Amino acid sequence: MLKVLKSGSAETTRFRADGAAFLALALLCGFLGGGLGALALGKQMSPAVSHGLLLDLFVLVPAFIGGMGRLVLPRELAATPGALVALDRLAFALLAGGALCAAGGIAAPGLFAMSLLFWTFGICALATSTVVDCLECRKGRFRDLSPFAWSQLLASLGIIVIAPVMLAGVAHDLMGGMTGTSAVQSWLVRVQTPLLALVITLALGAIATLIPGHSLSSRLIVPSAMAIPSVLVPVIWAHGTIVPGTSDILLRALGVALPSIALIGLVCLGLWRRNIDLDIGFSWSFPALLLLAAGWALSLFPDRPELFHSAMLFGAIFALFGCYYSWQEDALHAPAPAWLARIHLVSMGVAVFAMMPMFPVLSLLGNAGMIVSMFCVGLLIVRFLSAASSPARAGLR
């Protein structure tokens, strides 16, 4: 048995610090990966691989599980195993090392394979910690877990399936004579759909928690909808890497379209019954659901595959910010100013146009929205540091 520490103020403080560290790492990787995307437009191989590694592996999944998971989950736990804190910090060190290798691969392409190795061990350590946390520290029955906790548990199980298969595939290609850069690039493309399904699971869990209502309180429908993209899709994908023939369209329908449409249907039912409060959580969650539910249709346009990927990622980012705003208000008792939340929400909505390069004017407007959104994120960081450093407001002592 793990040594159990009571979920008191000191342990909660550690989990908040760990969550903030994972969010900071994800933010830095996002900025760095976005900058490298400009170099990737020149069709250079190394910047493109570095861009893909940073954005696909080191941003959303660590931000949801390592960041918001470590901030939100302690509020649902009766006790915290002390050994998991060390495991989380090991995971952070491995992921940080992997991110450095991904960036350094531009100068030394051999580091790309090392980056994937670090990421695999780091993300599996983080996932294992989350699974143990949810199983050993839950207060009651499984059906009493919130949709957010379910999404963390199910997505972590999916990670434990996907990451080792991806690493084994790259190792197999390397032994077959393929270069490290080509092998990593090939598997980044192949792993996009199951990784996206995990991001969808995490986003749906956050959304279902942000917009609670009678229809969303079902302890069967929401976990079942999230189990499809988080467990079924990774298993089918892993089988398809050994026995070719699995259709990406089928995986996207199961992992993205079906659960997203099911949840947006529940939201509409809740609105019809007037069970959902139109608060800041709903303001961020509804555009997230729209992008997640309708964005998959963009995959039907094979000449612009990046549109589907961008729509899904934007939807997940909306859910991530909504989860953070809600946590800051409930846990720190320091809600963001209404004007900041509105400007941030509008700027993110405008930033969606950045994924439309076929319309230069809209794309330019979207880039301007992204810049404004980054300033809003900077203000959120300052506010978080101010609130967290105040014992009376953060309740850390």
From TrEMBL:
The keyword Transmembrane applies. Keywords: Membrane, Transmembrane, Transmembrane helix. InterPro entries: Cyt_c_oxase-like_su1_sf. This is Cytochrome oxidase subunit I profile domain-containing protein. It comes from the Bacteria. The chain crosses the membrane at residues 20-41, 53-73, 85-106, 112-132, 153-171, 191-213, 220-237, 249-272, 284-301, 307-327, 339-359, 365-385.
